[in-house]
């Protein structure tokens, strides 16, 4: 068996053209969505991701506002910039690029985002709404994973899903998202304390690998026909992405998301979708 590809690039391109039409409709009603980004420090990976977010905005007609601060910025300075974005009507949603430098309390910063402008769905109020099953902006990578599965007709309802990794941007919120009544999956969240990862993975219809450990999921662990999504972003010695899925999984799995070209582009598309939806909500309330 050779797995079918869960092509995130193609799905993201389709979503972006749908969003461009919604942005045009908002502009006709006098509403221009605007995404703010806050980047602290000079991490090259984060700079690439933020550049990409501004390029994506331009492609669909979303205005963008960029706040770049040096790694030496204090927490108080970062919070001042957040207060400005919270008050700026041109900024309908914004994100703080993670990770932040160690000198800054990430929870304090994320907690200071106005929940109605939280384009990442990571503000504690919005994570709380996710726990309670109420509508709110959703974290981009988990939302992108669900959308990628849906667009490829991979059955989520009733599926046994193993998520490997309990991070706040992917693993934990993905577990909450997949166990909502609308998704209806059974989720096992694995992490460094999991006793027998291979046994857990072997029972899964869907595996989301977000451990950041190259090739942690190998063909011998995988149930034939399972859908595998690779969220791992380690780099090899040449700077190439080394995903969490070993290459041999292609011979056993039913679907595999490539890395790059799978979940990453969907994360970017879901950020745009959160921005557009927030602007649509604001326009409806006006
Ligand atoms: N505030 C946030 N910070 C971070 C998030 C997030 O959702 N919100 N997620 C990641 C980084 N990230 C977006 O910010 C992100 C990562 C990767 C990609 C992507 O498209 N990757 C490409 C490969 C690019 C490369 O070669 O490096 C792919 O998978 O095809 C987009 C967004 C952590 N921080």
Automatic annotation (TrEMBL):
One of its GO terms (molecular function) is methylenetetrahydrofolate dehydrogenase (NADP+) activity. The keyword Hydrolase applies. Keywords: Amino-acid biosynthesis, Histidine biosynthesis, Hydrolase, Methionine biosynthesis, Multifunctional enzyme, NADP, One-carbon metabolism, Oxidoreductase, Purine biosynthesis. Its EC number is 1.5.1.5, 3.5.4.9. The keyword NADP applies. Gene3D superfamilies: Leucine Dehydrogenase, chain A, domain 1, NAD(P)-binding Rossmann-like Domain. GO terms for cellular component: cytosol. It catalyses: (6R)-5,10-methylene-5,6,7,8-tetrahydrofolate + NADP(+) = (6R)-5,10-methenyltetrahydrofolate + NADPH; (6R)-5,10-methenyltetrahydrofolate + H2O = (6R)-10-formyltetrahydrofolate + H(+). It comes from the Bacteria. Homodimer. Catalyzes the oxidation of 5,10-methylenetetrahydrofolate to 5,10-methenyltetrahydrofolate and then the hydrolysis of 5,10-methenyltetrahydrofolate to 10-formyltetrahydrofolate. PANTHER family: C-1-TETRAHYDROFOLATE SYNTHASE, CYTOPLASMIC, C-1-TETRAHYDROFOLATE SYNTHASE, CYTOPLASMIC-RELATED. This is Bifunctional protein FolD. It comes from Mumia flava.
């Amino acid at each position: 068996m050779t797995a079918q590809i869960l092509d995130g690039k193609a799905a993201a391109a389709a979503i972006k053209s749908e969003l461009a039409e919604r942005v045009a409709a908002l502009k006709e009603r006098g509403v221009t969505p605007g995404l703010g980004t806050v980047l602290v420090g000079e991490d090259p990976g984060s700079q690439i991701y933020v550049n990409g977010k501004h390029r994506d905005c331009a492609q669909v007609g979303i205005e963008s506002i960029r706040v770049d601060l040096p790694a030496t910025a204090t927490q108080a300075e970062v919070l001042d910039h957040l207060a400005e974005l919270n008050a700026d009507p041109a900024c309908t949603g914004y994100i703080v690029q993670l990770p932040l430098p160690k000198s800054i309390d990430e929870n304090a910063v994320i907690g200071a985002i106005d929940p109605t402008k939280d384009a990442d769905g990571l503000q504690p109020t919005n994570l709380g709404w996710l726990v309670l099953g109420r509508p709110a902006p959703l974290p981009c990578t988990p939302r992108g994973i669900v959308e990628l599965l849906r667009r490829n007709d991979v059955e989520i309802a009733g599926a046994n899903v193993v998520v490997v990794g309990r991070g706040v941007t992917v693993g934990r919120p993905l577990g909450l998202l997949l166990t909502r009544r609308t998704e209806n999956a059974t989720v096992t969240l694995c992490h460094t304390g999991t006793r027998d990862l291979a046994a857990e993975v072997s029972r899964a219809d869907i595996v989301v690998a977000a451990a950041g450990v190259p090739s942690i999921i190998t063909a011998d662990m995988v149930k034939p026909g399972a859908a595998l999504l690779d969220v791992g972003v380690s780099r090899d010695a040449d700077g190439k992405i080394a995903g969490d899925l070993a290459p041999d999984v292609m011979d056993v799995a039913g679907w595999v998301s490539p890395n790059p070209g799978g979940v990453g582009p969907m994360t970017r598309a879901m950020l745009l979708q959160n921005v557009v939806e927030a602007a649509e909500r604001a326009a409806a309330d006006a």
